[in-house]
Amino acid sequence: MRKPEANAIALCPVCRQPMRPTSEKCPNCGAERHYGPRIIESAVCAFAGMVLLAAISTLLLPISLWTILFAAIGLVAGFLFSHNRFSGDRWLK
């Protein structure tokens, strides 16, 4: 790969090696730019929200249809939390 020109150099946030500022992947360390949450992050946050709100509703009321409603609300809330938490662009290895 050609070396970038001196005025068009950016440093990789992971390995601090020179790279092009428009690159989506670092040629040195292989880190990639990600926008938004990955699938695993969305799934973990949604599952945690579902379990947490279902547990809270079970503590307040006996298991009923309200528990299912609270679990569904927790699922949506966890999914929205993951999109809020991981909304920016990040460099992941």
From TrEMBL:
Top-rank lineage group of the source organism: Bacteria
Residue spans crossing the bilayer: 39-57, 63-81
Descriptive protein name: Zinc ribbon domain-containing protein
Originating organism: Gluconobacter vitians
Record lineage: Bacteria, Pseudomonadati, Pseudomonadota, Alphaproteobacteria, Acetobacterales
Keyword set, alphabetical order: Membrane, Transmembrane, Transmembrane helix
